[in-house]
Amino acid sequence: MPYPLLDQVNLPADLRGFDADQLKQLADELREFLLQSISQTGGHFASNLGTIELTIALHHVFETPHDRLVWDVGHQTYPHKVLTGRKARMDSMRKYGGLAGFPKREESEYDTFGVGHSSTSIGAAAGMAEGSKILGQRRKVVAVIGDGAMTAGQAFEALFNAGDKDTDLLVILNDNEMSISPNVGAFNAYLAKLLSGRFYQGFRSTGSRVLENVPPLHELVRRGEEHMKGFFSPSTLFEEFGFHYVGPIDGHDLDALVPTLQNLKSLHGPQFLHVVTKKGAGYKLAEGDPVKYHAVTPFTPADGMAAKAASKPTYTQIFGDWLCDMAAQDSRLVGITPAMREGSGLVRFEREFPDRYYDVGIAEQHAVTFAGGLACEGLKPVVAIYSTFLQRAYDQLIHDVALQNLPVVFAIDRAGLVGADGPTHAGSFDISFLRCIPNMAVLCPSDENECRQMLYTAFQLDQPSAVRYPRGTGPGVAIEQAFSAVPYGKGEIRRQGEGIAILAFGTMLAPALKAAEALGATVANMRWVKPLDVELVLQLAASHAQLVTVEENAVMGGAGSAVTEALNAAGLGRRVLQLGLPDRYVDHGDPAKLLAECGLDAAGIEASIRSAFGL
Predict the structure, then answer these.
(1) Which of 474, 454, 480 is nearest to 311 (CA)?
(2) How far apart are CA 224 and CA 247, in angstroms?
(3) Closest Cα partner for 419 from 385, 477, 470?
(4) Is-contact 371 408, C-beta < 8 A?
(5) pLDDT tens digit sequence for 20-46
(6) Residue 86 carries which DSSP code?
(7) Is the separation of the CB atoms in 486 and 453 below 8 Å?
(8) Phi, psi at residue 154, to the nearest 5°?
(9) How many CB atoms lie under 10 A from the CB of residue 547?
(10) What backbone phi and psi angles, to 5 degrees, belong to 8?
(11) How far apart are CA 478 and CA 324, in angstroms?
(12) At 160, which helix (H) or strand (E)?
């Protein structure tokens, strides 16, 4: 399909000569191109439709890449990729060897900062602006951050710091009242709640009642009320940080965006622009259901996304069902998510147990400490969190939960490789960073039923615990609805062989069993990383000439390291072949292909064992 103006744009410089009407036509063409492109490849959708005009205006006004443009999260950067020389490769989006779904420095000089997680743009942009000043380079630096990302403390830490610097930094708040799930703490809702809340209303009514017969003081209270409104308005709020605030303006109105950005470009010092956009803008189905259309699989634009056919449940669904079933049995259970209701499987839980559901916003650190506080009062918190998001709360995990031995369950989704989302979302390190923490229990289910039973087991423990499970579906094992605890710290032999013993952790059990068939090897489903089943390890070491560990986690510091430590502690200096994720970031692509590339499919495990032991 030809696009008369879009086809002329190979780099942002090509659109800087466009007039106002041409920019609007370009926006229409870019919206249609993205609709056709993403409907073929899948990927992030609604958020990208919402930033088309803003992206065009930014590249029209600023001299990118000399002027730095820093995006937050990156869900909304497909228009940016199209306009910065990658239009012909959009059909490779999120595929093996293709374009990344997020900004990536190695991919383009226009991707000034690699992202994938929330609330980093202001801090990175502030560093760039300060660095440019130190080096004597004159450039503008622009950070684009969504209102969902503004719920994170890191964004405000950066504002505090950046507003105190005499640098040419522009922060653009893209306000659509959405992150992925409907926002908690979007500014409009925040202000409405504040100005209708008990403190403000109490101040208003009590002051008026007490001082109504003292006119001068009554007038003072009235003025105080107006000042209070002003203090908590966006303009005053951000100006208190040291920024010059402008807005809000319509983020889809190029006639407003372009001159506003041109004016702000001419100003010196920290600037703050508040734009209001609509997720899914220009595609009615996405506008009507931006959560459903946040990330899509291929679909027909005329018909929209069809309902998914019933298939075996994902691990996320298994967790969500367990959480509801467990909550029905134990009134102490509370569920916590840092703004990932859909992704973590909490939709049903929120509906059935709204008084025990807590979405704390994009605030992983607070989620963990909040859980610790709930546990202090005798409740049983379950924190539903992605592996890579838990990394952001590591200090709180250690100091606020584990050090105090509080019984918080961490349901860790997206453990291991995650396919199209790539290294920013791959849970490659959680075994390593969890097992070194005193008081922690770490469980690795190998299939769907074990996942449900291990969640139940962890919930019964009087200590911090983590159950890690992958994205997507498992091998298809039937799920027992009745709860049955997994023996504490105990693995099991799943295949008896001789000569070689494969100690499999979590999802690696299925390929290990397949590899063992060709090798005649023993396979143990280790189940627990911590406490490790040392008795089983020593038993296998005594009865087998070769030991192999396999895990979907970084080799360094992982479950294999735990096995070698146990052998060394027992005085057995045995060689152990440790198989796992390599010491590099694994790129995006089809999960099966990535596992094969890492040697973690059945063929790869067999080949590594044959090579290592000369078989």
Answers:
(1) 474
(2) 24
(3) 470
(4) yes
(5) 999 999 999 999 999 999 988 888 888
(6) I
(7) yes
(8) -60, -35
(9) 24
(10) -85, -15
(11) 19
(12) helix 153-162
Q: How far, in Å, CA of 572 to CA of 566, rounded?
A: 9
**524 has which bridge partners?**
493, 503
Q: What is the pLDDT of residue 317?
A: 96
What residues act catalytically? 279, 364, 392
Amino acid at 415: A
Residue 107 CA to residue 85 CA, distance in Å, equals 10
What six digits make up the tokens of 614?
């000369």
Q: What's the distance, Cα to Cα, between the start and end of the chain in Å? A: 56
> At a CB cut-off of 8 Å and minimum separation 6, what does 134 contact?
none
The reported pLDDT for the residue numbered 501 is 98
Mean pLDDT of 158-175: 89
3-state percent helix, strand, coil for the chain, nearest multiple of 5: 45, 15, 40
- Is residue 201 predicted with pLDDT exceeding 80? no
pLDDT of residue 207 exceeding 50: no
Give me the residues paired with residue 382 across strands. 335, 409
Q: Of 406, 553, 402, give the one whose Cα is nearest residue 468.
A: 553
Percent of the chain with pLDDT over 70: 90
CB atoms within 10 A of CB 484: 10
The answer to whether the beta carbons of residues 574 and 567 sit under 8 Å apart is yes
What is the model's pTM?
Answer: 0.87
Query: Which two structure tokens, joined as six digits, stand for 255?
Result: 């006639």
Identify any residues that bridge with 334 across adjacent strands, giving them in sequence order. Answer: 381
* Structure token pair of residue 444: 């690795």
Q: The tokens of 299 are what?
A: 């679909």
Where does residue 137 rank: exposed (0-12), middle (13-18), buried (19+ CB within 10 A)? exposed
> Can you spell out the DSSP letters for 329-382?
H-TTEEEEESS-TTTTT-HHHHHH-GGGEEE--S-HHHHHHHHHHHHHTT-EEE
Scanning 42-152, the segments in alpha helix (DSSP H) are: 46-49, 52-61, 78-81, 121-134
What Å distances lie between residue 445 and 422, 437, 506, 550, 599, CA to CA? 23, 20, 5, 14, 20
Closest CA to 501 of 547, 561, 566: 547
Full 3-state SS string of 254-318: HHHHHHHHHHHHCCCCCEEEEEECCCCCCCHHHHHCCCCCCEECCCECCCECCCCCCCCCEHHHH
pLDDT band at 77 (very low <50, low <70, confident <90, very high): very high
